[in-house]
Specification:
It is a single chain. The chain folds into 2 domains: 67-149, no CATH class; 170-390, Orthogonal Bundle (MetI-like fold), CATH 1.10.3720. By secondary structure, it is mostly helical. It is globular and about 95 Å long. The protein has 13 helices and 7 strands.
Length: 391
């Protein structure tokens, strides 16, 4: 059985001694096992997160910066060892040599007599050149060449099908941002005023505890329950139809407790001495809150608001129940259909694995992740600016 070993060390001034106790062998084994367990737990927490993010990034990156070209049959003949386009009428159904069929990507149509740059000499469908792929549209060998494009950011999905090489997410991005804005315009004032009431006017009172308990319950309510509540209230009882505004009301129920709780905590961090100093100067309570308390914790409140927006932008259930999906841009908040990134993912996930439709779903997922990441970076920047201002 191992025992602890005592070591004696002299203090720097030589007047006193410090007794050091080396852990026993059993204690060292327990400490190493605990350290290994912590590292394992951290790895188990981080590895799945990195795996998810890397999968979304790899599968969804292509449509964000590139476009899959369409292919157009082009009739060409050799001229001085290079392919030159000729009139389509000269080809016929079974053109004789030296005429041949070639496929070039859309947007790169060549005129009669113009050189066809970058084409492979081979006419096999699977032959790949430096710039284009030769092959039937949606056939063998087609759909692998890509080129830089802003199509994803500037075009709607429209009537894109499973194998369509066109279709962007402009409508979904605009819809997601609009829904988040409407939700924030409703939820933020209510949440901030509610937090002010809880901290400044009802602190210590029984009703404040009741309201705080209700907020805790609301923060744990699933999004689909909030959607069903708004559906019953607005559509079933109120008689209104499905709309973007109705979906935003459901998201308000999800954003409200997040912003209210974060604002409440920020208000509690403001020292009471600041309030008392303002009261001593004869400043009314409402003006003290407006001019002293809120500016002191404004960075923390703004951080909570931005994080609340990030929280609701990825919600899907309220959008599925309360508003129909649109493949085109629609900015009316009272329209019955509107595109959004979560619903775009839900719509495109039905396409076959490996199809361009499935790629659009991954692209929408990555776009949503990027939006949330940007909002989190904004929140961090606001919090950092607040800390610098305090210093």
């Amino acid at each position: 059985m191992s025992t602890a070993v005592n070591h004696t060390a002299s203090a720097p001034n030589g007047e006193s001694k410090v007794q050091l106790r080396t852990p026993s062998g059993k204690r060292q084994l327990i400490d190493k096992a605990a350290t290994a367990f912590v590292w394992l737990a951290g790895a188990l927490a981080i590895i799945p997160l990195l795996w998810i993010l890397s999968t979304v990034a790899i599968k969804g990156a292509a449509p964000l910066v590139t476009a899959q070209p369409d292919y157009v049959k082009t009739c060409a003949t050799k001229d001085g060892g290079k392919w030159v386009r000729v009139e389509q009428s000269q080809c016929g159904d079974n053109p004789a040599k030296p005429l041949d069929y070639r496929y070039t990507e859309s947007g790169s149509y060549v005129a009669v007599g113009e050189r066809l740059k970058g084409l492979s000499k081979s006419t096999e469908p699977s032959a790949v050149s430096r710039e284009v792929v030769i092959g039937e549209p949606q056939g063998i060998g087609a759909g692998t060449a890509r080129h830089f494009s802003l199509q994803w950011w500037t075009q709607d999905e429209g009537q894109a099908t499973q194998n369509s090489s066109v279709g962007g997410a402009k409508h979904a991005i605009i819809g997601t941002l609009e829904i988040g804005l409407i939700t924030s315009l409703i939820a933020v004032p209510i949440a901030v005023l509610g937090a002010i009431w809880l901290v400044e006017y009802a602190r210590g009172k029984k009703i404040a505890k009741v309201v705080s308990f209700a907020i805790d319950i609301l923060s744990g309510v699933p999004s689909i329950v909030a959607a069903l509540f708004i559906f019953a209230l607005v559509i079933t009882i109120g008689g209104f139809g499905r709309s973007t505004f109705a979906a935003s009301l459901a998201l308000v129920l999800l954003m409200l407790p997040t912003v209210l709780r974060s604002t409440e905590e920020m208000l509690k961090l403001v020292p009471d001495s600041l309030r008392e100093a303002s009261y001593a100067l004869g400043v009314p309570k409402w003006k003290t809150i407006l001019k002293v308390v809120l500016p002191t914790c404004s960075s923390g409140i703004l951080t909570g608001i931005v994080l609340g927006m990030a929280r609701v932008m990825g919600e899907t259930a309220p959008l599925l129940i309360l508003v129909a999906f649109a493949t085109g841009t629609n900015v009316s908040p009272f329209a019955s259909n509107m595109g959004s990134l979560p619903t775009m993912i839900n719509e495109d996930r039905r396409f076959a694995v490996g199809s361009t439709g499935e790629v659009r779903a991954w692209g929408a997922a990555l776009t949503l992740v990027l939006l949330v990441m940007i909002l989190n970076l904004i929140a961090r920047a606001i919090a950092r600016r607040g800390k610098l201002a305090e210093k």
